[in-house]
Amino acid sequence: MIPFMTGKQFRVLREILDHGNERVSVADTAKRANASKATVSLIAGRLKRSGILKKNLELNLSKFTTRALKIVINAYRLSPLIPLIKSSLKDARGIGVYGSWADGTNTRKSDLDLWARCKLAPSLKEVAALERVIRKRYGIDVQILALDDARFKALKESDSNFYHAIANSKVVWGTLYD
After folding, report:
1. Which pTM was predicted?
2. CATH no. for residue 27?
3. How far is residue 2's CA from residue 10's CA, in Å, rounded to a whole number?
4. Which of 34, 68, 118, 163 could form a disulfide with 156 if both were Cys (CB 3.0 to 4.6 A apart)?
5. Taking the mean position of all CA atoms in its chain, how far away is CA 102?
6. Residues contacting 24, CB < 8 A, separation 6+
7. Tens digit of pLDDT for each residue in 122-141?
């Protein structure tokens, strides 16, 4: 949770930011965030005055500040996953996020794209088991790309666009490079 916000304020902000450009009502947002309509209206009013929201709680994703705020919220949402990934992938050297969660354009329907840089790549079975745990525990559809040195090098040679997406991703723990 963000240190200067209450849990309720964080839930409301997360709900508002997660719906993307989908129009939702104050009542629906309050229900999803387990908060009062007054709390949702107060926070929505502040976000409208700052230009982050348009009418009907519609996000203004063309504003950098909207995407930056979403990235901050995403970082806090990712933080409990890091110890789980580190303990599941014992020789992990780095964990990062790419795609919509990294650039602040994710919605509640977006999957979470993560990479894990490992000394030795875990088996597909180990990665799939970790993905299932994250889905069940956190309700997030996640895809984890496990990379050892050989896979990282092969990615660079076989798919330079995807390699650069990973290379320019957000590192949330450790390092992508040795």
Report:
1. 0.88
2. 1.10.10
3. 7
4. 163
5. 6
6. 56, 57
7. 999 999 999 999 999 999 99
